[in-house]
Amino acid sequence: MLKMVDVYSGSPRSFATQSGTDITMVKATQGTYYVNPYCDTDYQAAKKAGKMLGVYHYAGGGDPAVEANFFYKNTKNYVGEAVPALDWEDYQNPKYGKDSNWCRKFVDKYHELTGVWPLIYTGQAALPEVGNCAKDCGLWLAWYATMNWNSWTLPNVSFNVSPWPTYTIWQFTGGDMDRNVVNTTKEGWLKLAKPNVDGRPSSQPAIAETKPQPKVKTWTDVQGMTWHSEDGTFITGGAINLRWGATTQSTIIAQLPAGSVVKYNAWARDNVGRVWLQQPRPNGKNAYLVGRAGNEAWGTFK
């Protein structure tokens, strides 16, 4: 298996050339309104460092064909060299959970433009929604054992990826960085960037080095959010509001500046893709802050 990091504008620039990794996947565009200003900087640095490459588009929920054109227009110089991917999440995407044909229309248009089938990035909950892409596109699955798994040793877990036979990429942690393992060879990855190549691996991945998944207590709150017990440390990457509840409508306690160190004892993902951290406070009270939104961490997990 290969090791891959994925990066966006808020990532340290050093992540693009991370020692010991094989592939750098760079966020390029979002919707029809955003181009990552550091995309080519990270791309060229990774290329110079000898990394294999990928670029991804974050779905904005607009017209899928128009978004595919936007992605192509802004990454056409990478076509044939970088493996493309479509990021399908609920954060900032009004069509998530509401349009099971959106991704299919996007990949069909992108394939029409380039002859290349993009990978599909999503979480396990959305697999039925994007499953109509499985016959053509490889799966890049986000599935975490914990939020602070800061190691390339894989958690010893199993999970469903149906209707795909297996994953092409597994993003297994978003702690200190987004770490991914890729279920192909170097030659296989390079082929995925070329026109008219089947992007689906046919065999189950072989995991050579694992460690057991820690036992995690879970519970569901009144909002329907599933919480996972976990003792960890989060260092804010920018100013983040600390609140009395795990919603953006909850009262703000304080605005934490960049570099603030927060001890947390649980985390949960809300229905728009934000990861909330629970900070224990005196007298049995808890405070809450967002540590991650969609595929972008708002700081570093330790």
TrEMBL record:
Pfam families referenced in this protein's UniProt entry, alphabetically: Glyco_hydro_25
One biological process term in Gene Ontology: cell wall macromolecule catabolic process
Keyword annotations from UniProtKB, A to Z: Glycosidase, Hydrolase
Transmembrane segments: none
Record domain SH3b: where: 230-297
Listed GO MF terms: lysozyme activity
PANTHER family, alphabetized: LYSOZYME
Family label: Belongs to the glycosyl hydrolase 25 family.
Name the record gives this protein: Glycoside hydrolase family 25
Species per Swiss-Prot/TrEMBL record: Lactobacillus johnsonii
